[in-house]
């Protein structure tokens, strides 16, 4: 069995913020789980580096776009490494094999007769890298970026999206193309029912982009360029075997703002090029800070690296997956991560593991008596993760942790240890706890790989001794 999962690729005009991190962590949890389940797994992430927006930011810094991109993409790659993301490739839209793939796909679409030239006039929002309509605006401004879109009249190459809408609709209805959650599936079906306009796939006045193979005066529209990363990143041009093995993608994980691009335009481009559609798209909600979407334009960004330095990558991963119901919006803040850290992690899991290892050292010569069955089976956790109910999965695991802490309080191993007559009972208590903690560690490993590894090692050692706190106090 194979499993191919992708994230959206981020614009590199700013540094990565906690909102960008969210879907990366969720995708990593799924990728790690797939690997643990024995599936051959490919996990792709990367950066979206072309287009008018990036060119503007580069210019403001007095840099050529390529030099700017070479500096800024690193912030993303480093942040994702700091968060322990197990990506198999980090694709940049300036990578040579990506450039070649984009040229190839556009040529195919043109040869297949799905492109035509037309003059177009519209309101372009550089923040969105997309044309907006009058009804999208509030007081003449883009409501998300608070900027006035530019009225542009130009000659572009257009893509006949409309030729494919019936086919996409059918695939969705048959369940061959899945969209999660259901509300977004309905939204896409209703967009398709309304009739979807053809889109411009080239821009004559944007220099920072991939030239159209047959018309060097135009560059490929940045969204078309970016979407193609999902095939270039898995070897479409550079490693045909790899591509054959992994395409179509099992899941594209993206934010709800870019559903239309992923559920309509991307499948249409693939069909036009004669390539299979992906199997599914998962849309998550927005992270907000003080109830406003976290974004560079709003200026309320939280740097994931700051939290990783302070709390550790596992704690940040835990917080993001536990705090918000995937698919919905959720508010994050320093107070909230601190509360989860102190409560769930330090007092809950951390305390349990220190108490248990301490007791095994003291009352059982560092040896865990024969391992028995744990109290919980946690067999429902797998299904929860596979259906994107990450917060429920973690809540379930924390029930097992709470049970174990309570079991210690009730059985009082320190009292049992006072009388050799209780040896059998003491052994049983420590065994059940050992089994329970081992299972908790295993279930946690897609979410908190480092913590899981520490717990695993405890039970592999010949003489178990009290371990260093897993989650030391943070000021
Ligand atoms: N470059 C495009 C995606 C191209 S994919 C072929 C883009 N970039 S982005 O940097 O604006 O956003 C990248 C991802 O981060 C998107 O999935 C977006 O929804 C997500 N998020 C950006 N801000 C977010 C929050 N505040 N909260 C949660 N996710 C957010 O769109």
Describe the structure.
By secondary structure, the protein is an alpha/beta fold. The protein has a domain of 127 residues: Isoleucyl-tRNA Synthetase, Domain 1 (Orthogonal Bundle). 49% of the residues lie in helices and 16% in strands. The strands form 4 sheets. Strands 1, 2, 3, 4, 8, 13 and 14 form a 7-stranded parallel β-sheet that branches. Helix 10 links the parallel strand 13 and strand 14. Helix 6 crosses helix 10 and helix 15 runs antiparallel to helix 17. The chain is elongated, with a radius of gyration of 26 Å. The two termini are 46 Å apart. The model has no long low-confidence stretch (mean pLDDT 96). Bound molecules: 5'-O-[(L-methionyl)-sulphamoyl]adenosine. The site of 5'-O-[(L-methionyl)-sulphamoyl]adenosine has 21 residues, from strand 2, helix 1, helix 7 and strand 13.
Question: What labels describe this entry?
Answer:
binds 5'-O-[(L-methionyl)-sulphamoyl]adenosine, 4-stranded antiparallel β-sheet, single chain, 475 residues, 18 helices, alpha/beta
What's the quick description here?
The protein has 475 residues and is α/β, with parallel strands linked by helices. The protein has a domain at 333-459: Isoleucyl-tRNA Synthetase, Domain 1, CATH 1.10.730.10. The protein is built from 18 helices and 17 strands.
């Amino acid at each position: 069995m194979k499993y191919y999962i992708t994230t959206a690729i981020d614009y590199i005009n700013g540094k990565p913020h906690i909102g960008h991190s969210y879907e990366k962590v969720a995708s990593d949890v799924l990728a790690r789980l797939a690997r643990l389940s024995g599936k051959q797994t490919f996990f792709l992430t990367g950066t979206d580096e072309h287009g008018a927006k990036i060119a503007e930011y580069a210019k403001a810094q007095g840099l050529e776009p390529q030099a700017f991109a070479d500096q800024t993409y690193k912030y993303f790659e480093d942040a994702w490494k700091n968060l322990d993301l197990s990506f198999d490739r980090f694709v940049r839209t300036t990578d040579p094999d990506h450039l070649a793939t984009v040229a190839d796909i556009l040529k195919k679409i043109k040869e297949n007769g799905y492109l035509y030239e037309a003059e177009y006039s519209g309101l372009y929002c550089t923040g969105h890298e997309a044309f907006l309509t009058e009804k999208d605006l509030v007081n003449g401004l883009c409501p998300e970026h608070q900027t006035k879109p530019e009225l542009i009249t130009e000659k572009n190459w257009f893509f006949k999206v409309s030729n494919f809408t019936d086919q996409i609709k059918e695939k969705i209805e048959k369940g061959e193309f899945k969209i999660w959650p259901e509300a977004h599936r309905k939204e896409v079906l209703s967009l398709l029912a309304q009739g979807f306009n053809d889109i411009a796939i080239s821009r004559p006045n944007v220099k920072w982009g991939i030239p159209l193979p047959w018309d060097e005066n135009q560059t490929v529209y940045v969204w078309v360029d970016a979407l193609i990363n999902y095939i270039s990143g898995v070897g479409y041009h550079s490693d045909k075997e790899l591509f054959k093995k992994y395409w179509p993608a099992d899941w594209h994980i993206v934010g709800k703002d870019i559903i239309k691009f992923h559920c309509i335009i991307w499948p249409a481009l693939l069909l036009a090029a004669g390539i299979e559609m992906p199997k599914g798209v998962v849309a998550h909600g927005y992270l907000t800070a003080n109830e406003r979407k976290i974004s560079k334009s709003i200026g309320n960004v939280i740097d994931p690296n700051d939290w990783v330095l302070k709390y550790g990558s596992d704690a940040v991963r835990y917080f993001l997956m536990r705090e918000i119901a995937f698919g919905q919006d959720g508010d994050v803040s320093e107070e909230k991560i601190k509360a989860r850290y102190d409560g769930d992690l330090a007092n809950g899991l951390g305390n349990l593991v220190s108490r248990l290892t301490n007791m095994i050292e003291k009352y059982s010569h560092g040896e865990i008596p024969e391992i028995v069955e744990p109290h919980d089976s946690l067999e429902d956790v797998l299904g929860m993760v596979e259906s994107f109910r990450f917060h429920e999965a973690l809540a379930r695991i924390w029930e097992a942790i709470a049970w174990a802490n309570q079991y210690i309080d009730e059985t009082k191993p320190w009292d049992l240890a006072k009388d050799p007559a209780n040896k059998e009972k003491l052994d049983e208590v420590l065994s059940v706890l050992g089994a329970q903690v081992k299972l908790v560690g295993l279930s946690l490993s897609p979410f908190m790989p480092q913590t899981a590894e520490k717990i695993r090692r405890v039970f592999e050692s010949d003489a178990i001794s009290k371990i260093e706190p897993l989650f030391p106090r943070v000021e």
